[in-house]
Amino acid sequence: MRKKLVKTLEKKGIVDKHVLKAIGSIPRHLFMDSGFVDHAYVDKAFPIAADQTISQPYTVARQTELLQVKKGDKVLEIGTGSGYQAAVLLEIGTILFTIERQNELFKKTKLFLPKLGYKPKRMIFGDGYKGLEQEAPFDGIIVTAGAPYVPQPLMAQLKIGGRLVIPVGEDVQIMTVFTRKSESEFQKEEFGEFRFVPMLEDKN
């Protein structure tokens, strides 16, 4: 079933061999409620706890491919969720820092990921809009929720040459990549429409 999913992703245009290998290695059904096991290797998003979703495999693959990270790169993930995207990044060999805003999901995933052998450098319960300044700069930052605007702290926490992959928009998001060219210069690219749950901000 995993091989079939990888073939589906290849047909949809995913070419990065490291991404495809990671998705082919991860038991996605374990990240979902038992009632959804039959759907685990279908290219669709599904609900998880706290009114969130586990993203469609194509979306995970596309975001990871756009991030262009390799083994040993330092990555910040905003929105740990089920932990599936984190597992893909860890399978590739990145040094991963991941932030989750929903306490229910944070507690569940913090226990769950290590049981599968996936160990982020740090898992943080907090506000993704602020990033993680004490661990910056990052080779890559990936946002797995729809952001109504691009948080400036995330831009500031990129290394020169680093990439921020973020879906920007309210109801429908445009997958956007910012590449840091210098201290003050960023290159912006857009890669089509996607739909994500909203990125939550701590207004306190």
What is shown here, in short?
This protein has 204 residues and is an alpha/beta fold. The chain contains six helices and nine strands. The mean pLDDT is 93.
Structural class: alpha/beta
| CATH topology term | Rossmann fold
The H-level CATH homologous superfamily, spelled out, is: Vaccinia Virus protein VP39
Rg over CA atoms, rounded to whole Å, is 16 Å
**How many separate helices?**
6
Query: Which whole number gives the mean pLDDT?
Result: 93
Name the strands of the widest sheet in spatial order.
Answer: 5-4-3-6-7-8-9
Structure description:
This protein has 204 residues and is of the alpha/beta class. The protein has one domain (2-194): 3-Layer(aba) Sandwich (Rossmann fold), CATH 3.40.50. It has helices at 2-11, 17-25, 57-67, 84-92, 103-115, 152-156; strands at 46-47, 53-54, 74-78, 95-100, 122-125, 138-143, 158-168, 173-180, 186-194. It has a seven-stranded mixed beta sheet. The chain has a two-stranded antiparallel ribbon with strand order 1-2. Helix 5 links the parallel strand 4 (95-100) and strand 5.
Indicate the topology:
Elements: H1 2-11, H2 17-25, E1 46-47, E2 53-54, H3 57-67, E3 74-78, H4 84-92, E4 95-100, H5 103-115, E5 122-125, E6 138-143, H6 152-156, E7 158-168, E8 173-180, E9 186-194
Parallel strand pairs: 3-4, 3-6, 4-5, 6-7
Antiparallel strand pairs: 1-2, 7-8, 8-9
Throw out a few tags for this protein.
seven-stranded mixed beta sheet, globular, two-stranded antiparallel ribbon, 204 residues, 28% helix, alpha/beta, Rossmann fold, 9 strands, 6 helices
